[in-house]
Amino acid sequence: MKKIVTLLVxxxxxxxxxxxxxGDNEEEILENxxxxxxxxxxxxxxxxxxIYVETSDQSQTSNNSAQAEIILSEDPVASYQHLTQEExxxxxxxxxxxxxxxxxxxxxxxxxxxVDVMEEETMxxxxxxxxxxILEAVEDYAVFDSxxxxxxxxxxxxxxxxxxxxxxxxxxxxxxFDIDEDVSLDFTMHVxxxxxxxxxxxxxxxxxxxxxxLEMNFQITYxxxxxxxxxxxxxxxxxETAGNAVDLPDIxxxxxxxxxxxxxxxxxxxxxxxxxxxxxVSNEDRAAYQLTTTGQNDEEMTKEFYQTGEKAYAQDENxxxxxxxxxxxxxxxxxxxxxxxxxxxxxxxxxEKKEETEFKTYSYLxxxxx
Length: 370
Fold this sequence. Notes:
Blueprint: H1 2-39, E1 42-55, E2 61-74, E3 77-87, E4 90-99, E5 102-107, E6 112-116, H2 128-138, E7 143-145, E8 151-157, H3 160-167, H4 179-182, E9 183-191, E10 198-209, E11 212-223, H5 235-241, E12 253-265, E13 270-282, E14 287-296, E15 299-308, E16 311-315, E17 321-325, H6 337-347, E18 353-356, E19 359-362
Antiparallel strand pairs: 1-2, 1-11, 2-3, 3-4, 4-5, 5-6, 7-8, 8-9, 9-10, 10-11, 12-13, 13-14, 14-15, 15-16, 16-17, 18-19
Helix pairs in contact: 1-2, 2-3
């Protein structure tokens, strides 16, 4: 009898130790997975999105989808994307390569075009760190399971915190539905058993009211974590765009006159809007002056604006001067010289080139390139 009691005590202790060990493992797995947002800097991913909308009387339906193949490196900065979008049967494809601040883009298998990208421009959304941030936000709502070959977090139901966690990374905005009353959600997230990276995730949204119903499905799968081959621009893209470059000087100071007129005419009325003026810009000194006239039909208003560094002075509607703060990222003038130059370069593949004296003229553009 004493031996049996001893065995029972040992058995209970083993069960208790196993339970404690499982709890510690779950906490450690979560901590490592959240840390992976700092450790992962390269990956390949397959992304799939499907949206189905149907009215309550089934008179109208809509099927949209998007699939993307992504290879991405944050260090060094480089990416490859092949995106296929389908909207009610109409398909569009885009292929893009990026290295640092340069990119080559091809639409529907057509001509390649070279474009400049901003250093802070996101390479793909949702990024891996954004997916990790979702897990961090919903960890208290997810059910953890370690019985399979991968660790799994699952959820089904509706909590506003869960909906909010997915809303921004997946750019989800539901209109026509009461979010708290009409919507239900579920997701499944698999974590690699050894490295504790997120391997894949599926997220579903269901919404229904007396107007109709909506289903949204998102799936993303990661592989080749921190182990991708170097990304290089395709030779055909480089060769095809070699003659398209516009030789523009690096201009940091300039004066510009600008004018925009818009005329809209219907059977009952006509409308005319204007925006015109002049500007002096110095990127080196973070300084600018603008004299702008805006108007609609017979009403016009002219205002002045000065900026030096992070301080600016502008006239209000009563022509009083008002001091305002500006941030370093705020543009001195839009469109800037650099933006116009980038626009010229990106549309050259579609323009007819004509040599005229000392100018290069492109027939679909309204400006000359010296």
